Known about the structure:
Layout: H1 3-18, H2 39-50, H3 58-69, E1 77-79, E2 88-91, E3 94-98, E4 105-107, H4 110-113, H5 115-119, H6 123-133, H7 137-161, H8 163-177
Antiparallel strand pairs: 1-4, 2-3
Helix pairs in contact: 1-6, 2-7, 3-7, 7-8
Amino acid sequence: MPASTEAIRMAGFLRALHAHQPMTAPINPHRGVPLESKAPDIQKRIERLRLVSDLVNPKIEHLWEVALGEAHSSQRCLLHGDLHPKNVIVRQQKLTAVIDWGDLTSGDPATDVACLWMLFGDKNARNAALDRYGADQPLINRSIGWAIYFGTILLDTGLPSNPVHADMGRQILRHVYTA
């Protein structure tokens, strides 16, 4: 897909979704929450993966620490909650649908903005999308943290028996590495 056009379209979708702040939106204990709540699990995964993958390296660890250092957003907006590559449909190189709304929740928009690192390897396309979204640096840092979260989980759980998940995790971490 033409990276910059589709990344900007995704940012427009996220802005529209995140503009909703319903008071009755569901709460998901795993998405939209402070990254600090993920830190113990991800640190264990990082330590394991460091032994088997050169993608888990000091730069990724530094970006994770930067993300953890950002204050959790007090903004609560509607989130998809699970915008990884298997939940975005592409036809004829265009984003056509977002599926699997089972993790719909409210919380920190960084959870969804992380999809820009999961879907787009082109740094310029991501930057154009982040500009379109209106992301500030704390949101960007938290989003990178969420991308590391998803990437390490997919890689760690995929290595033993799910090559598709392992490949997704590798791709996400490669994209983060160019953040």
